[in-house]
């Protein structure tokens, strides 16, 4: 079962094909999962979430992840009696829950207020070079880059910093860049009550630069255009402002 809830997809855990078990743990088909990861495949526009995603408190999640990550480190052969390593499981668990994956919790969504467009500003408003730090959901490695956002007011505006906060909120979860781009645009359409939205993301993926092909020079550009930005002249104007060209 898959059910959409406020920008998330709630799922029961559907296992992929199994190759059997090791120590009672199901082993998934490695070939299938590698293909999905290396081909950058996303399964949903919405973030897949389990039905019980928010049963545990943040403190309970940190405690559970700490135990599990300690097991991972010990499995790798690391000596956690070392002063440098002993606190790492807790640091990682706290970072996962309260920092880099805090956008999984709808309760952490930014509080956005809209205001009347009293200046009657009718051209596009562009916020460019917004810092973007996310995590690839296929390998849990960083995605780092810039987001560029534009909108044309339908009568309401939001504070400039709120655009940055929206980008940051949807970035702070395991992501695929295409999904992230769509989620940001969808949220801006909802808040501003306008279809006239443009979002472009230019980012580097550590899963490309530090593993697999190990290409450090390439970056990935994704875009979402709606409303007036479907018109080539408005799209060109936006791209000129953010200096990406056609």
Please give a structural write-up.
This protein has 246 residues and is α+β, with helices and mostly antiparallel strands. The chain is built from eight helices and twelve strands. It has a five-stranded mixed β-sheet. Strands 1-2-5 form a three-stranded mixed β-sheet, with no helix packed on it. The chain has a two-stranded antiparallel ribbon with strand order 3-4. Strand 3 and strand 4 form a beta hairpin. Helix 2 crosses helix 4 and helix 5 packs antiparallel against helix 6. The longest helix is centred in the first third of the chain and has 18 residues, at 58-75. It is globular and about 65 Å long.
Order of helical and strand elements: EEEEHEHHHEEEEHEHEHEH
Q: How is the biggest beta sheet arranged?
A: 5 strands, mixed
Principal-axis shape: globular
Mean pLDDT: 87
Number of helices: 8
Helix fraction, binned, reads: 25-40%
Q: Mind telling me the C-alpha Rg?
A: 20 Å
Percent range for β-strand residues: 25-35%
Strand tally is: 12
* Structural class estimated from helices and strands: alpha+beta
């Amino acid at each position: 079962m898959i059910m959409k809830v406020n920008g998330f997809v709630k799922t029961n855990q559907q296992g992929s094909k199994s190759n059997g078990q090791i120590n009672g743990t199901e082993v998934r088909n490695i070939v299938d999962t590698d293909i999905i990861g290396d081909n950058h495949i996303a399964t949903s526009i919405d973030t897949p979430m389990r039905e019980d995603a928010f049963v545990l408190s943040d403190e309970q999640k940190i405690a559970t992840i700490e135990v599990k990550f300690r097991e991972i480190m010990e499995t790798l052969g690391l000596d956690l009696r070392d002063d440098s390593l002993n606190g790492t499981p807790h640091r990682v668990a706290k970072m996962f829950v309260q920092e880099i994956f805090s956008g999984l919790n709808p309760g952490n969504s930014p509080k956005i207020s809209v205001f009347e467009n009293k200046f009657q500003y009718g051209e596009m408003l562009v916020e460019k070079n917004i810092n973007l730090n996310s995590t690839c959901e296929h390998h849990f490695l960083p995605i780092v880059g810039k987001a560029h956002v534009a909108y044309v007011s339908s009568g309401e505006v939001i504070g400039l910093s709120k655009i940055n906060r929206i980008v940051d909120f949807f970035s702070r979860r395991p992501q695929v860049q295409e999904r992230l781009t769509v989620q940001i645009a969808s949220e801006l359409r909802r808040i501003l009550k306008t279809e006239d939205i443009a979002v472009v993301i230019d980012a580097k993926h550590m899963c490309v630069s530090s593993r697999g092909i190990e290409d450090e020079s390439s970056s990935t550009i994704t875009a979402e255009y709606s409303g007036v930005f479907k018109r080539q002249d408005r799209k060109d104007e936006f791209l000129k402002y953010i200096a990406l060209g056609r």
